C-alpha cells in the first residue's frame, strides 16, 4: 500500500513532466523525419532528408561555429567574474548588502529591456560607448554592424546579465563553509591565496559544476538578445543555434527542418552535460 501511496503523490509531477518535457522531445524527434505539411495535407515522410539538408546548410555551420565561440567567451568569464564578486561581497565590509543588490540587479531585468539598454550603449555617433571612446580619439565605429565586433558585443551583454545570477549560488556556497577552516588556516600561517586554492575552491566544486551546466544551457538557448539587437546579422555573424532554429521554424515556416535542428541541439546539450559530469565529478568534493 505504501508504494502505491508514494506513486500517487508523484503522479501530478510525473504527468506534468511527461506532458511538457518528455512528450515534446519525442514529438520533435518524430517530426524531424517528416517534411513541413502544406495546405491541410499530411506531412510526407522524408526520412533523414532534413539531416542531409542540415549538413549542406552553411548558415547552420556558421551558427554552430558562432555558438562555440560564444560559449567559450561567455562561460569562463561569467563564472570567474561571479566567483570574484561572491568572494568580495562575502567579506566583512560596509555596504555589502547594497553591493550584492547592485551585482544581482541585471539578472532580474527583462531580457528585452537589457537588449534595448545595450543598443543605446552601442549606437554609433551618440551611444555611451562612442562617447567614451571619442575621448581617446576613437569614434565612428558601428559596433553591432561590423562582423568583427558584433558577436563580441553580444557576449558582453550576456556576461553582464549572467554573472550576478551565478554569484548568488557561489555566495550561498561560501556561507556554508565552516569558519573554523579559515581559523585553522590562519593559525597554521597559510597565506590567503593558498587557503583559497586548497580549501575554498575544492569545496565550491559542486556549485561550480552546477553553474557550468547552467552556463552551457544559457549559452545555447540565447535568442532574445539576438532578436532585439542584431537579428543574426551582419551576414549571420551573430546567428546562434537557437536563433537559427527560430528563423527556420517561425520565419521560413519549415517545421520539419526546424525539428531536425532542435534534435541536434538537444543532442549537443546532452553530450556536453554528460561530459561535464564525467570529467568534473572526480574533482567534486561533497561535504
TrEMBL record:
CDD domains membership: TM_PBP2
Keyword terms of this UniProt record: Cell membrane, Membrane, Transmembrane, Transmembrane helix, Transport
Name of the protein described by the UniProt record: sn-glycerol-3-phosphate transport system permease protein UgpA
Pfam family name, one: BPD_transp_1
Gene that produces this protein: ugpA_2
Location in or out of the cell: Cell membrane
Originating species: Usitatibacter palustris
GO CC terms: plasma membrane
Domain ABC transmembrane type-1 residue range list: 64-274
Annotated InterPro entries: ABC_transporter_permease, MetI-like, MetI-like_sf
GO process terms (BP): transmembrane transport
Signal peptide: none
Amino acid at each position: 500500500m505504501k508504494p502505491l501511496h508514494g506513486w500517487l503523490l508523484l503522479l501530478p509531477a510525473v504527468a506534468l513532466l511527461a506532458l511538457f518535457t518528455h512528450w515534446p522531445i519525442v514529438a520533435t524527434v518524430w517530426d524531424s523525419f517528416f517534411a513541413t505539411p502544406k495546405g491541410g495535407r499530411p506531412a510526407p515522410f522524408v526520412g533523414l532528408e532534413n539531416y542531409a539538408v542540415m549538413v549542406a546548410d552553411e548558415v547552420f555551420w556558421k551558427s554552430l561555429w558562432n555558438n562555440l565561440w560564444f560559449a567559450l567567451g561567455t562561460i569562463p568569464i561569467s563564472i570567474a567574474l561571479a566567483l570574484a564578486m561572491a568572494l568580495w561581497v562575502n567579506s566583512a565590509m560596509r555596504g555589502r548588502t547594497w553591493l550584492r543588490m547592485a551585482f544581482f540587479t541585471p539578472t532580474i531585468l527583462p531580457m528585452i529591456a537589457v537588449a534595448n539598454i545595450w543598443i543605446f550603449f552601442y549606437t554609433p555617433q551618440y551611444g555611451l560607448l562612442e562617447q567614451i571612446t571619442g575621448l581617446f580619439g576613437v569614434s565612428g565605429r558601428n559596433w553591432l554592424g561590423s562582423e568583427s565586433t558584433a558577436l563580441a558585443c553580444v557576449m558582453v551583454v550576456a556576461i553582464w546579465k549572467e554573472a550576478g545570477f551565478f554569484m548568488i549560488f557561489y555566495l550561498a556556497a561560501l556561507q556554508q563553509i565552516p569558519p573554523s577552516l579559515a581559523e585553522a588556516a590562519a593559525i597554521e600561517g597559510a597565506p590567503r591565496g593558498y587557503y583559497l586554492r586548497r580549501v575554498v575552491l575544492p569545496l565550491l566544486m559542486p556549485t561550480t559544476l552546477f553553474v557550468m551546466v547552467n552556463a552551457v544551457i544559457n549559452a545555447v538557448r540565447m535568442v532574445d538578445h539576438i532578436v532585439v539587437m542584431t537579428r543574426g546579422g551582419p551576414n549571420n555573424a551573430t546567428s546562434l543555434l537557437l536563433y537559427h532554429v527560430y528563423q527556420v521554424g517561425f520565419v521560413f515556416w519549415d517545421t520539419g527542418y526546424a525539428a531536425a535542428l532542435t534534435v541536434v541541439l538537444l543532442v549537443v546539450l546532452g553530450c556536453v552535460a554528460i561530459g561535464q559530469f564525467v570529467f568534473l565529478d572526480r574533482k567534486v568534493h561533497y561535504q
